[in-house]
Amino acid sequence: MVNLKELDPESSPQAxxxxxxxxxxxxxxxxxxxxxxxxGYSATHISAVETARKMPTxxxxxxxxxxxxxxxxxxxxxxxxxxxxxxxxxxGFPEYVGHExxxxxxxxxxxxxxxxxxxxxxxxxxxxxxxxxxxxITQEQADERVAFLAERQAALVRVRPxxxxxxxxxxxxRWIIGGGEVMDAQLxxxxxxxEQPNSLLQVAPFEMGERRTLDRPINLLTLADRSVICYAExxxxxxxxxxxxxxxxxxxxxxxLQGEALxxxxxxxxxxxxxKGIQ
Length: 279
What we know:
Blueprint: H1 13-27, H2 32-39, H3 43-50, H4 58-68, H5 77-87, H6 93-100, E1 105-110, H7 121-133, H8 139-155, E2 163-169, H9 170-174, H10 179-194, E3 199-204, E4 218-222, E5 228-233, E6 238-241, H11 244-260, H12 264-278
Parallel strand pairs: 1-2, 2-3
Antiparallel strand pairs: 1-4, 4-5, 5-6
Helix pairs in contact: 2-3, 4-5, 7-8, 10-12
């Protein structure tokens, strides 16, 4: 067991959360068993959170707010949990997602994997669990990524949904993720997406070669005031850009990419052909 006295609250957001739980509990003169009675969690679970051996959850955080009387304040455990949650995401991405949920037009270009907004839960789970097995993230963070993606997708189901333009590199549909069954269901999801009235799906085929105007994934949002935001990321860093001098050229490049990519009908035909090969 981790020695509580050796836990450094500044070593990680999880450690800071755990230290705060312990401090709040001890201020009230409670033992871990006492807090367990107030939250409905076991003393063992509370000990694991306090020592940063276990990631807190939304439900656990809300139970702490009720137990400690911090519900509805500006410094809730739920708020701290959300900061931990987004801390595993690339810089700029949480802010981007906030705008994404209110955008009137969304333009996405991706390579290698299906864009998140179109991923099935099974496809997303395979990617998250794979990252956890490699040690890139914890299993708890993998679970949070899948849940976070589901929230992003749900935010697009509105009375007036945004127009969603998706252009993906051919590699996105060629790479078999999770085996034949998972991939077949994912390709079916793409076909269903293409049938929606507020969508446009295009595949940028390998044969485009040097005519490809983008060489990395990007997301472009058109907001209600017609301003445009661009989000781009690498393996380890994300960047949110609002400056028109750099965003407008990216928007132009996206439109040029669409002009060179396959039509939606041709893209769907390619996907249907691939499905026959993996069924």
